[in-house]
Amino acid sequence: MNGSASEGAEAGDASPRDALVIGAGIAGLVAARELVLQGYTVRVLEADSVAGGQIRAQEIAGLRLDVGADSFATRDDVMRDYLGRLGLGERIVRRREATTWLHSAEDRCVRLPEMSLLGIPSAPLSADVVSITGTRHAWRGMLDAVMPGPWGARSATLGGLVRRRMGDGVLEKLVAPVVDDRHRRHPDELPVSAVPGLVHHLLRENSLSRAVTRLRLDAPAHGETASLAGGMTVLVDALLTELDRFGVSVLYGTRVAEVHEKGVVVATADPDRDGEHIAGRVIVAAPGLVGAGTRAAVHVVTLVLDGSGIEGAPRGSRVVVARGSSVRARALDHVSATWEWVREVAHDREVLRLTYESDVTAEQARADASRVMGTEVSSRSVLGSAVTTWHRADAVDATASIPMVGEQIAGPDLAAIIAHAQRTVRALS
Q: Alpha-carbon Rg of the chain, whole angstroms?
């Protein structure tokens, strides 16, 4: 049963099987469901007025669209299995179009090489690589093929490895924008271990480009990006329905002021309840509440257009924007060219989604969309827009006394978040 902070929040001693989950994002909802299945009596405390955390939808020009996380990786079958248990298996949808483009620092928009990994090309002299790096840097990249396999294999970072094998041009013009988009950092700051198997295949194949080819060919088909028909909030709704069926209270508008191993102190607008202690075994699923703050904000602008001026998918499904270009956006997603369910509900309208690192207006996003798409997106064509700001969680080390779940521990991958929340609950004594 979902309620307000005044429902079910009596102070007092708790039994060993009473549990409190702080935060009603995906990690908190998964943890709460797992706790119930382990025989706990559970209450979820959520400071916001809605559940879901960074999974949220909004109605824009009559379309209900994801304005937060809108996809997930299906690798290791974690998501597929979990969604199946929630009855959402038939809702899983794959991308309609999977091509990615790069808007370069020189304001040229070119298609990224199809056979690449984090921008590392499998064929440095291919036309699509040359169009990005230039002939001189492409030829430098080809030296990788004649270098001994161990050359650069001990590099601590991905940037160090690519620079040793393929040179600065391939690194900065091609790999850096893709890594920045995926990991929000430069390759020189990304441990080479973030690409499992890359060094192993480098030593085996005696070439970084051939290692990329091997990893791409060996990648399982289920390691693709997917979403849910109707949007990712379908998952939130399914988890809330499960918790309601088990009698779990979700107490909205309940901000936690203090966290202890066996209870919390809450802050509410009700002076009679402000500072109240709620007892129970605590699991923290609220980023920044324990041990860390949050990363820089991520600003997402969603535009619904009447379709005029955009025919088909002129820039595929996604455009990564290199730093130094005239475009402020870090990436543009052509949502209606990516997901079939969006195409069906949008009819002849187009949906674009632009991501920024600083405050932005819908008008700025429209101007950036025109530059990135290579065609004028007029103000008249914008039927509706929404600007949403999210705060990503800093990584923290889990403590033994207060279990923590969510992005702050497991990282941003949804499958990893769900798997970690399940493991954390099952490890409770």
A: 23
Tens digit of each residue's pLDDT (9 = 90 or more) over 166-223: 999 999 999 999 999 988 899 999 999 999 999 999 999 999 999 999 998 876 544 5
Residues in the chain: 429
Q: Report strand pairing: 331-334 vs 318-321.
A: antiparallel
C-beta of residue 125 within 8 angstroms of C-beta of residue 141: yes
Rounded Cα–Cα distance for residues 38 and 16 (Å)? 12
pLDDT digits (tens, 9 = 90+) for 388-416: 998 877 766 665 578 999 988 888 889 99
Amino acid at 344: E
Residues 6 or more apart whose CB falls under 8 angstroms from that of 94 comprise 224, 225, 226
The amino acid occupying position 347 is H
Phi (first) and psi of residue 361, to 5 degrees: -110, 165
CA atoms within 13 A on the CB side of 134: 10
**Residue 34 DSSP SS3:** helix
Smallest Cα–Cα separation from 240: which of 408, 55, 416? 55
- The model carries a pTM of 0.88
Identify whether the C-beta of residue 89 lies closer than 8 Å to the C-beta of residue 83. yes
**Strand, helix or coil for residue 74:** coil
Q: Residue 187 burial (CB < 10 Å; 0-12/13-18/19+)?
A: buried
